[in-house]
Amino acid sequence: MLRKSVVPVLLLGLLAGCGTATAVNPPGSTITVQNCGLDVTVSGPPKRVFAAYQPAIEMAHALGISDRLVGTAYLDAEVLPEYATAQAKAKYYKNLPSREELLAANPDFVLSGFNDVFSAGGGSDQSFGSRKSLAELGIQTWIFSPLCPTADGLGDEAIDPSSVSMDNVYADLRGLGKLFGVEDRAEAVIADQSDRIAAVEAKVKNAPKPTVAILRPGLEGGGLTVSGGPDFGTVLIKQAGGVNAFADLTSKRNVKIGVEELIKRNPDYILISGCCDASLTPASTKPDVDKMLANPAFQNLKAVRDKHVVPWLFANHSAGVRGAYTTEDIAKTIHPDLFR
Question: In 3-state terms, the chain is what percent helix, strand and coil (to 5)?
């Protein structure tokens, strides 16, 4: 039996930008929460928060701490509509700032949706340095739990697929709720997410399970890149009543494959994962969809024959508060008869 949501979706959206969540921790109290093997300790709710990447930015708005943001950086797409007003008021960096620029903003907390920002040796983006190095400067940090590296300063090449779950998103919400003094708000977000996902799971329970591939065209200098088992898309597809066609590839989140492998697996649906700009919408990836549909090499794919190649967003399969939205979106795509 489904629980009734604590806070309706509309109310959560209206609250997202107001930043009026009530603190529940006594002023000056010290709170410690463990995140990815490190203790995160604050003496009172952080007041100057920097959020890097889409999942972190949207989670900050969902928790009602928009008014504490001293900076946001590197959106992969437009934020969800309920966070648009709050994000429009936030300072935004199109690219990640340098470590020096970050320190100039004087944050007391850095929340990141991906762990490469804390890579000691840099990475695909500018690194802020290891979490330990920031803690030594009095800046506490947080990485989303489904992307914990094997050690501070390392990348996500060895993510344990068992850690990639909505339960870990809920754990992040609860941990951040404690640290920011917004535990009631965190529980309301969790209730909304879990109820909506449960409703989808109940509806697709007895339906066939189509295979789905999440494809990022042109990544890493061309070719095809698919979401493997450790990618959060695997969880979302399963919740929506499908199966990630590449779930058995567990070496990393994004896996480079050849055209032959895609043809061999022959997924029922292909989601074209567009990235990365703050103004990006699913419609922005339509040219990549059209290109695949017209490519002679793909004409024998079921997804191409059935016109089941779908414009989509990288932001949709990032671990965070898009979990319910994306589960609903995929379910409507692969089970249209159940969601008319």
Answer: 40, 15, 40
For the record, the structure tokens of 315 come out as 């932001």
Q: What phi and psi, each to the nearest 5 degrees, are found at residue 79?
A: -70, 160
- The answer to whether 230 and 243 are in contact (CB under 8 A) is no
CA distances (Å), origin 5, targets 10, 147, 191, 239, 262: 11, 28, 6, 18, 40
Q: Could you tell me which of 4, 318, 331, 45 has the C-alpha nearest to residue 166?
A: 318
* Structure-token pair, residue 178: 């404690």
Mean pLDDT of 57-68: 98
| Tens digit of each residue's pLDDT (9 = 90 or more) over 81-137 | 999 999 999 999 999 999 999 999 999 999 999 888 998 764 445 689 999 999 999
Q: Tell me how long the chain is.
A: 340
In the structure, how many helices (H) and strands (E) does the chain have?
12, 13
Amino acid, res. 169: V
Structure tokens at 167: 């339960």
pLDDT of residue 16: 39
Instruction: Give 208: exposed, middle or buried? Use CB within 10 Å, 0-12, 13-18, 19+.
Output: exposed
State the sign of the Cα–Cα–Cα–Cα dihedral 280, 282, 283, 284.
Answer: positive
The whole-angstrom separation of Cα 330 and Cα 314 is 13
Q: DSSP secondary-structure letter at 6? A: S
The whole-model pTM stands at 0.88
Indicate the Cα dihedral angle 135, 140, 145, 149, nearest 10°: -20
Kindly report the average pLDDT of the chain as a whole number. 89
Dump pLDDT digits (tens) for 183-216.
999 999 999 999 999 999 999 999 999 999 999 9
Establish whether the linkage from the previous residue to 276 is cis, with ω within 30° of 0.
Answer: yes
User: Residue 110: which H helix or E strand, with range?
Assistant: strand 109-112
